[in-house]
Specification:
Elements (H helix, E strand, L loop, with lengths): L1 H17 L2 H4 L16 E3 L8 E5 L1 H9 L17 E5 L3 E8 L5 E5 L6 E15 L18 E9 L10 E4 L6 E9 L9 E5 L6 E8 L3 E18 L3 E14 L2 E3 L3 E5 L11 E10 L3 E5 L12 E18 L2 E20 L5 E6 L31 E3 L8 E5 L1 H13 L3 E4 L3 E4 L3 E3 L4 E4 L4 E4 L11 E6 L10 E9 L6 E6 L9 E10 L26 E9 L4 E6 L2 E4 L15 E8 L4 E6 L2 E3 L4 E6 L2 E11 L24 H4 L11 E6 L2 E11 L23 E4 L3 E11 L3 E5 L2 E5 L9 E7 L2
Parallel strand pairs: 1-3, 2-4, 3-5, 4-6, 5-7, 6-7, 6-8, 7-9, 8-10, 9-11, 10-12, 11-12, 12-13, 12-14, 13-15, 13-16, 14-16, 15-17, 16-18, 17-18, 19-46, 21-23, 22-24, 23-26, 24-27, 25-28, 26-29, 27-29, 28-30, 29-31, 30-32, 31-33, 31-34, 32-35, 33-36, 34-37, 35-38, 36-39, 37-39, 38-40, ...
Antiparallel strand pairs: 18-19, 19-20, 43-46, 44-45
């Protein structure tokens, strides 16, 4: 009896040690507008799921997703008011029909022993997880408005379905602030297999990382505006990747092993190529007869569609690296392709059509890691125990959108950092009336995208801006900080709010990091910037001061350095997420992301910055920046009013002076820059989409037939800028694609692509 008791105790201790902390902590997240008793965190086993590999768990998992029966599903446009984190402990969960996550849902499995979602032989549905179902002939949610969701730490298994029966692992037509991370897809390897691991037909992404696809007819079949995908592995697929369509796509650390074909970009044929471009870097193809198939050739249409850049691509037993419509375009073998491409180039003069070897970028050693550019997957702290986690709500913060949580949050931040623990930001809306100081050593993790909002008079003076989050007390302070899975924003007019001020100089070997950290100014309940307060006013140049939402979204100061940002979306809202019609609104934010670090070393991996008045991205007096698939949109209200109002030029911040620079420039010149680079060097951009869709809320300006004339200019290089390298530059709605010191270097009509204009290789020299 004593032995049995001792043995049971040892087993219990082992289970406690191995349990993921997210499963063990007390969950007390609140949804201030979700209704009484609303529960944010849901463990599927609490709803009856067994995870024993025998029981059909479909109904229990569906109940966990949907309880109460008023979450955002069929007929609901979108909402932030009813979030959920649905947790799967380790186990094998049999399902017989699709699991449909409602809007604003995170699905998280135990990263120490990933749970398996396994289809029964008689499975019915479009995807074991259907992220956007077809209740009618249309997707339930407009795919370009599907935000704030993720799936991580799962195994998706279709091997129980007959190989010749159609099956899809995950259906995922979504957009910004979404992700798939640490997911494995297991499919049959029988020659008759027709299974697809991941299917995407539309949307405006986006980011994914650390996915593995085993078997299947197609690992991933995908169409979307743009994406960054990092560390995707394909084993024994008939075709690893089929690009249905895109505007631009960047693959980093792609591995294709023992597939019949690597990447297929032949959709549409030579007369109507559907793929805008692909950029593949730091990747490996092995034991695969054909690496990439393309239909690009002289005379193909659109002119620049089907463009390719390959940089640092290792081949092992890949006879054909690139196959065109008439045969081999680039021979393979067992070799490393240092640089190769096809499309249009400007160096900086152009356009010149090229197909062949290119000189690869010379990468600063400070930006590189073991196998290419430095990268780091989102930390999940899976080796920690529940005792290593400090709850914001247990520390006194309320997160109810009305209580002033400044003191409680500051105390929690300080306590967790000084104790070497992780601060867990339970879901909620945390109202803050003064700057929160984040010291070196802090680690903050959110539950289901909680939001910290700047509110009150401290953030009300445009001439005296204050940060909401100040990382490091002063520019150049040493140390490291890690943020993941939360949002920053404002509540009510905040013309003096800088949402994140980054002062920290982190060690070269251990950069600070932000993963799935977003800014959202307006457009949600609790912001006081919705349709009722800030309706769009087409034709009016009057600015409602109550709708000035932020001074700047993020500021990296002169002595800061070594920051890795992954899947970060800094968004000033163009529409009301809570509105049944997603009605457009007008909210003003002065500046997007400003990096003015003289030290440099920044990684922007799958980031987007949208709808800011003066610029979205600005790099000034800086160096050593790596970026993959930057994405911007110009404010929909411009040019009425234009970028000269309501934010005055601040010369100390190197603000653009449109009144001066637009002299003699025709068209809508005083519109926000998508990207502005001033007196900077060693900039390496692997994909960029800078879009201007609207002229004062009308889209008639952004079509080819209209002349792509929403604005005059969208990317600017100024001053002593040098060694700027851009692969896959896409623009929409701008007459000039890129300017140097006020002179256009490239026009859209010389570089037509599937919808954007495209320059596949740009270098200043």
């Amino acid at each position: 009896m004593r032995f049995q008791t001792l043995f049971s105790g040892v087993i219990a201790l082992a289970l406690t040690v191995n349990a993921y902390w997210l499963e063990d902590i007390t969950h007390q997240g609140v949804a201030p507008f979700g209704g009484d008793g609303y529960t944010v965190f849901r463990n599927v086993k609490d709803f009856g799921a067994k995870g024993d590999g025998v029981t059909d768990d479909t109904a229990a998992i569906t109940k966990a997703m949907n309880t109460p029966d008023n979450r955002c599903l069929q007929g609901c446009a979108s909402t932030t008011t009813k979030p959920a984190v649905v947790y799967f402990p380790s186990g094998t969960y049999l399902i017989s029909s699709s699991i449909v996550p409602p809007y604003f849902t995170q699905i998280i499995g135990d990263p120490n022993n990933r749970p398996v979602l396994k289809a029964t032989a008689n499975f019915q549905g479009f995807g074991l997880i259907d992220g956007n179902p077809y209740y009618t002939e249309n997707l339930n949610w407009v795919s370009t408005n599907v935000f704030y969701r993720q799936i991580r730490n799962l195994v998706i298994d279709t091997t129980g379905i007959a190989p010749a029966t159609a099956a899809t692992g995950i259906h995922w037509p979504t957009s910004q602030a979404t992700s798939l991370i640490n997911v494995e897809f297991n499919m049959p390897t029988d020659p008759s297999v027709v299974h697809v691991g991941l299917f995407i037909e539309s949307g405006s992404g986006g980011f994914m990382s650390d996915l593995t696809f085993n078997g299947g007819a197609t690992g991933a079949s995908m169409g979307n505006q743009q994406y960054t995908m990092r560390n995707l592995v394909f084993n024994n697929c008939q075709t690893a990747i089929i690009q249905l369509w895109n505007w631009g796509w960047t693959y980093i650390g792609l591995q294709i092993n023992n597939c019949q074909k690597g990447i297929d970009i032949t959709a549409g044929g030579s007369d109507a190529i559907a793929t805008g471009s692909i950029t593949v870097i730091d990747s490996t193809f092995k034991d695969t007869p054909v690496g990439i198939t393309t239909v690009w050739q002289t005379g193909a249409k659109p002119d620049t569609a089907g463009s390719i850049i390959l940089e640092n691509l290792s081949l092992s037993n890949v006879p054909v690296a690139v196959q065109g419509p008439s045969g081999t375009v680039l021979e393979g073998g067992s070799t490393t392709i240092a640089g190769w491409g096809q499309g249009h180039q400007y160096t900086p003069d152009g356009p010149k059509t090229f197909q062949g070897t290119i000189t690869p970028n010379t990468r600063p050693s400070s930006l590189t890691g073991d196998n290419g550019y430095y990268s780091r997957s989102k930390p999940q702290y899976e080796n920690l125990a529940a005792g290593d986690i400090v709850s914001a709500r247990s520390s006194g913060a309320k997160g109810d959108s009305t209580t002033d949580d400044t003191a409680a949050l500051q105390s929690a931040i300080n306590s967790a950092a000084s104790g070497g623990k992780v601060l867990f930001l339970d879901h909620g809306i945390y109202k803050v009336t003064g700057t929160l100081s984040v010291p070196a050593g802090a680690k903050i993790v959110g539950e289901g995208y909680p939001i910290i909002v700047a509110s009150g008079s401290a953030f009300g003076d445009m001439s005296n801006p204050k940060p909401l989050l100040q990382v490091g007390a002063k520019s150049g302070d040493a140390g490291q900080v890690e943020f993941s899975d939360f949002v920053v924003g404002t509540q009510g007019a905040a013309p003096g709010a800088t949402l994140i001020e980054w002062n920290l100089a982190s060690p070269a070997g251990t950069p600070s990091g932000m993963w799935d950290v977003h800014a959202r100014v307006g457009g949600f309940q609790g912001s006081n910037f919705q349709v009722a307060q800030c309706p769009k006013q087409p034709g009016s140049s009057a600015v409602d001061s109550n709708c000035i939402g932020a001074y700047m979204l993020m500021h990296v100061t002169p002595q800061a350095s070594n920051l890795y940002m992954e899947n970060t979306w800094l968004w000033t809202a163009d529409h009301d997420i809570e509105d049944a019609s997603n009605t457009q609104i007008t909210v003003y934010s002065g500046r997007g992301l400003l990096i003015e670090s003289t030290v440099g070393n920044f990684w922007l991996v799958g980031t987007a910055v949208e709808h800011n008045n003066l610029y979205n991205y600005q790099f000034a007096n800086t160096k050593n920046i790596f970026a993959s698939m930057l994405q911007t949109e110009t404010p929909y209200y411009q040019p009425t009013p234009d970028a000269t109002t309501p934010f005055p030029v601040v010369t100390a911040l190197n603000d653009p002076d449109f009144k001066a620079s637009c002299s003699g420039v025709s068209g809508n010149c005083a519109n926000a820059w998508g990207l502005r680079v001033v007196d900077s060097t060693d900039i390496f951009i692997y994909g960029a989409g800078h879009y201007s869709f609207f002229n004062n809320y009308s889209t008639t300006c952004s079509t080819v037939d209209a002349g792509e004339n929403c604005q005059s200019r969208i990317v600017s290089l100024e001053g002593s800028t040098s060694n700027v390298n851009i692969y896959a530059l896409n623009t929409i709605g701008s007459l000039s694609m890129i300017d140097k010191d006020g002179t256009s270097l490239a026009k859209w009509q010389d570089n037509e692509n599937v919808f954007p204009a495209n320059i596949m290789l740009f270098r200043t020299g």
